[in-house]
Amino acid sequence: MSEHKREPEGYCSVDKYLTLISTKWTAHIVWLLGQQAEIRFGQVRKNLVFVSSKVLSERLKMLKEEGFVWRRQEDTIPVTVYYGLTDKGKELAQVVDLIVAKAERWNEQA
Question: What's the pLDDT at 46?
Fold first, then answer.
């Protein structure tokens, strides 16, 4: 039995990460998580007021599955969930910061 592959044969890993970072809200989430060591889900939600809880949860799950984000849950009532960047996520945050800086510079030049 053959193993199921996530990417087709010859798939470019650059495309994988460009698609990931360009998925709506993903770069915003990475940037926000990069501003502090850890942040509660509700705090992320308050800072990104235009993203729905469903989409935010999906993006955080995707980032966690790819190894960019860690998740810690405290069994309180209600449940308290914290998120933060892994070392890989911190590297991605540096890329996002560079894109933000370039965009600001290009906007000033326009």
Answer: 95
Tracing tokens 């209600």 back to the chain, one arrives at 78
Q: How many helices (H) and strands (E) does the chain have?
A: 5, 3
Give the C-alpha separation, 87 to 65, whole Å. 14
Kind plus residue range of the DSSP H or E element containing 82? strand 80-85
- The pLDDT tens digits for 26-45 are 999 999 999 999 999 999 99
Q: Is the pTM of this model over 0.85?
A: no
Q: Are 37 and 87 in contact (CB under 8 A)?
A: no
Q: How far is CA 87 from the centre of its chain?
A: 13
Token reading at 60: 């955080």
Q: Are 8 and 53 in contact (CB under 8 A)?
A: no
Residue 73 bridge partners (DSSP): 81
Q: Which residues contact 56 (CB under 8 A, 6 or more apart)?
A: 25, 29, 41, 44, 45, 48
Q: The tokens of 58 are what?
A: 């999906």
